[in-house]
Amino acid sequence: MNYGTKLVYLYHPKVLKSVGQTLNNLVMAKFNIVAYKSNQKRDGSYPICLRATKEGKRKYIDLGLTTQENQWDESTGRFKRDKRLNPTYVRDNSLLNHYEERKDSILRKFAEERIDWTLNLFEEQFWGMSKQGKVYDFFITQIENLKATNHIGNAKAYARTLHVMGKYDDKIEERLFPEIDIKYVNAFNVALEKDKCGGNTRKYYMKTLRAVLNKAIKEKEASLSTYPFGKGGFEISTLEEETRKRYLLSEDLNLIKNSPQQNFTMEYTRRLFLFSYYCFGISYVDMASLTTHNIEKLETGEYIVYKRQKIKNQKGVKSIKIPLTDTIRGLIEWFGKNTPLIGDYLTPIITRDYSGEQLYEHIRSRYGRYNKNLKKLGVALGIERQKLTTYVSRHTMAMTLQSNKVPREVISQVMGHSNLETTNVYLDSFETSVVDEAAKLL
């Protein structure tokens, strides 16, 4: 490839008002990477510059490299491929290639946004891009910070997203934040879709990427000018796919409530499922973290009071208060008498004195085993309509409250949701009984 003079034509046919305006919308700019011989240094070397020419005006942008006259190939605009003359020519030419790509990226942006740019604006954009941090490095820093502050789940989410981005982008380690624009995000989404990645999974990756970009903008590592989300940008909400509601029918729920198991593992599994159900569908991770310190005596009685691990550090998150009913108290007492609890934990999920990432992996391992046992319990009880999982207790609780006319605002509160939209994912649009009544009117 010849890296000498390049002519770049910026042409916008969409903005032409008539054929007669064609020539007025054809802008010619000329770029060269050159050894600037008018500015020779004391050691006889010359600075390497990007020379930009437009409308008879010229600007030299110093690229931070120098060359002796015998090291430079004017015809290619690169260092000569000779280690005897320049041992670092491979590295130096690679850097010049990177600058060439940066220049092309800026010109594409000007063309797409129909900007009548000046040489000063071009230079500002050129160095503005270089001052922005690298996406990969910022991701890694955020992952390390999250681990250090014991946000292991979020750290894993960031790491998974970065891994997937690298799968489709072999230049991810060199990407600068201005390159993560709407075109990049659209291409990433298409690549995921072609790889049979479902909408909800793509939504997960996009939300993580958006979170990283928001952090980068806040820390002045990235600019809003190329932000791919928000108004007019990529709409993450369009990726959401409706999932089948995972809740038990009342007869299946009663079967679990009233069918003690002879096998200890199955009985422990059954009681843990019911504990989650009676505690307003508490998640497995939150259930694992409960200790005696979460039991508080308030004016109206005793409650289990906790904040969801998933969002406990977000601003304005309120505690969930679960009335300590006789049923819940009975389950806690059974765990205390029949399982090897450690420390002050209310449930026997955590069985080792771990912390940090080790604790996170321990809970994940126990979570996988628990779901396998739930599946076996469902088979043992003859529950065929719905496979038992940790989510089923939460969904079933929400649907039970709705069928008993509990307002969705209340259901949202006891589930710890920040808005009703999240709660609505768990609930059918209408109860089937309401639909049945509507059908009678036809």
UniProtKB/TrEMBL annotation:
Family assignment from sequence similarity: Belongs to the 'phage' integrase family.
Domain of life: Bacteria
InterPro entries, A to Z: Arm-DNA-bind_5, DNA_brk_join_enz, Integrase-like_cat_sf, Integrase_catalytic, Integrase_recombinase_N, SAM-like_dom, Tyrosine_recombinase_XerCD
Name recorded for this polypeptide: Phage integrase family protein
GO MF, any single term: DNA binding
Residue span(s) of domain Tyr recombinase: 243-440
BP GO annotations: DNA integration; DNA recombination
Keywords attached to this entry: DNA recombination, DNA-binding
Pfam families assigned: Arm-DNA-bind_5 (PF17293), Phage_int_SAM_5 (PF13102), Phage_integrase (PF00589)
Gene3D superfamilies: 1.10.150.130, Intergrase catalytic core (1.10.443.10)
